[in-house]
Specification:
This protein is α+β, with helices and mostly antiparallel strands. Helix content is 31%, strand content 15%. The protein has helices at 68-75, 92-98, 103-114, 128-136, 187-195, 199-204, 243-263, 268-275, 281-289, 291-294, and strands at 5-6, 12-13, 23-24, 27-28, 54-63, 155-160, 163-167, 182-184, 218-224, 233-235, 238-240.
């Protein structure tokens, strides 16, 4: 519900939650974490109506730690350069894998076929079997395999719950990303790789090109629950916000800091420093998925 809006005072409010504030003079702030567009105790005709979800447009994609293992598996199945499944569908083991009906079992079998592949199959080399078959059928046009033939990582590692690292062979010349042999794979780069997967390959991997795309495992937009589900408590002349509200305030602050860094055109190393500061965005996203960490002593707000 936090779409672009014009208030009764004629003020234009951009879409999404963009301000790290909750209340001003006891009222929710448009664009803030308690945006009136999401509903509130004074805006509900039905007491059973909890309000509406808002959203935060993230400055860049972020790993959803609940699905980061699935992302790692998918990255091991497809090419880092073109998004094609790394194994030729005419391979005997690959054919057996594609015959499996259960999506998860098929995905695991495909991953077993592609694990350890050092290069994407195909590239500019002519597929002699297809060319011979085409000539036998009287076709004059040569056909090429769909892979790009470029190098793939030796290892795809997850040293912590929120990070993925990749390692290439020292002899590889065409290394994506920073070009370093060992590098961190940022969520925005993983998101770009998963977006390149074709609809046919998405189905082969057990997903749906319309309702369950692989790139959706990575956050680009964060939902914000309505204020009535995280009520503030009044005491005296002050208001004490819910711990979940405080966490969303921190998320907005960190997101805005990263957004300013990208908008200012800061160098990649400066942007990485912003990501890794004590107020880094992924640190605040983590407790939203694992509720027990949200209510650990160091995350609670004491008044």
């Amino acid at each position: 519900m936090t779409q672009e809006y014009t208030t009764t005072k004629g003020e234009s409010v951009p879409a999404g939650v963009t301000k790290a504030v909750t209340f001003v003079d006891g009222e929710g702030v448009y664009g803030g974490v308690n945006d009136p567009r999401m509903g509130g105790d004074n805006d509900r005709d039905d007491e059973d109506d909890p309000g509406f979800f808002g959203h935060i447009n993230l400055a860049e994609p972020m790993y959803n730690i609940g699905y980061i293992n699935e992302v790692r598996t998918l990255l091991g199945c497809v090419c880092f350069h073109c998004g094609t499944i790394l194994e030729d569908t005419r391979n005997a083991k690959m054919r057996d894998a594609l015959k499996l009906k259960h999506p998860k079992s098929r995905r695991r079998a495909i991953h077993a076929c592609t694990k350890g592949k050092r290069r994407c199959f195909g590239g500019d080399q002519l597929d002699e079997d297809e060319q011979r078959e085409s000539e036998q059928q009287g076709g004059g046009e040569t056909r090429r395999t769909i892979g790009c033939g470029r190098p793939q990582p030796l290892k795809i590692m997850k040293p912590s719950a929120d990070k993925i690292f990749i390692e290439f062979d020292a002899s590889d010349q065409d290394i994506p990303g920073t070009g370093e042999r060992r590098q961190q794979l940022l969520a925005k780069d993983a998101h770009h790789i998963l977006k390149m997967i074709t609809d046919d390959d998405i189905i082969r991997l057990g997903f749906h090109p319309k309702y369950a795309r692989p790139e959706w495992f990575i956050w680009t937009v964060l939902p914000v629950p309505p204020p009535p589900t995280r009520p503030a408590v009044e005491f005296g002349s002050g208001i004490s916000d819910d711990d979940l509200t405080h966490k969303y305030v921190n998320i907005v602050k960190a997101n805005n800091a990263l957004g300013r860094s990208k908008q200012n055109g800061d160098a990649p190393n400066i942007q990485q420093e912003v990501r890794m500061t004590s107020n880094n965005l992924i640190y605040f996203l983590f407790p939203l998925f694992f509720v027990h960490s949200l209510f650990s002593p160091r995350n609670l707000v004491h008044t």
